[in-house]
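Study this:
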Amino acid sequence: MLKKLGAFGYLSSQEVKDNGVVNAGHLDQALALAWVKLHICKFGGDPSKVTIAGQSAGAGSVMHHALAVNGDLGSLLFDKGLAQSPYLPYQPNFNDAIPTSRYYAFSAAAGCPSSGSVFSCLLSKSAADLELASLSVTASSTQGSWGFWPVTDGVYIKNRPTAQLTAKRVNGNKLLVGYNAHEGPLFVPGPDAIETQADLLAWMALWFPNLSSAQLNSILAINPNSALSSASGPRFETDGLNTGGFNAINTSPDGVGQKQRGNNIYAEATFACPAYWLADAYSGNPGKSSWLYQFSVPFAYHGADINAAFGPSTPSLPSDITLAFRKAWGNFIVGGNPSIANTIANGASSASPSAYHPASNWPVWNQNAPQFVNFNTTGGTLATVELPLVGPYPQYEGPGIKNAISVQNANTWEAYRGDRCAFYKNLGPYMPN
């Protein structure tokens, strides 16, 4: 949502706030949610059981509505939240240097002054002019970034997400949150741009503009990898368990070496760790609960779980895995628990469909001993597929694909992802987010 609205939803500066509101995109969503709450009964719905859902920037919106008004809205707007890959870039104050500089860049691109009072001039411009100006600012941003984001406005969004999530000040009662195994490749420059550690640091300085060189190097230290990038590979999936020393820090179907190091830094800081932090905020919080998943069906790039949830199916997504994923969603929305039956988790093509499966008793997220469900498959025939911005990548196609869904330890997963997420949260005041 925020990526699509651009300046129309998230233009921010002191002058914008003095003349109206910032975070207008989120306020529009809140108005829509209030309308649903008031009128859903006229469509056969239950106003006490509203579920909001979103993917990527939309999942970031779910997160922000969970944080809205310091978490004091309770279940006023929704009961349950479903967030696919919650997007959390840095979140400055509405009048900080970065949103203010983009406000003036937007003004100049629209044909108005680049400093001083420009609001009246912007009001005189056509919607088409403003749309092109918004596109211009976003086009000049670092790969993986956009021109306009939500900001801390002191009214609807009162705090940094990492701070408020740590304080467990959240709206709604239940949350299902997840991410994909390889969130980074679409947002990180290719292996020809990131071959060495120096290349990686140069990109990181653009993506994390507020961090010092010491802080950037500390991120490298918790993502140890001395190998050079290689476009020829070998590139392959990891099992997440660090078998043989291979994990998301150093290899994926998209890259190896410094390129994959960057992929995982972006993936964890922007999507995977915010999913952990969101789940944490509902854990041990009276009357609230959460569940977490990772979608790992190769090649599990950003957005891959959309096909599993809504279709259309692809050669790597046979009916067994899509049925399991959709049942988890449906069970959460209807009954408030994403657990799926043994026969669904194992899949009809399993040798023992009725055998006990731990996903039939999906563990509620426990911040002190976190477990999640990993949606994956095994079998099939290796094929090469082309993905825009990524290039050729390996995936497995049917027949012969079977479910390989499992319950895993979220802390030790991918060479102690839990530790890295705790580290990124400590950087929250500096990013800021």
Observations:
- The longest helix spans residues 257-282.
- The beta strands are 51-55, 80-84, 174-180, 289-295, 371-375, 377-378, 381-387, 391-397, 402-403, 406-409.
- The chain has 16 helices and ten strands.
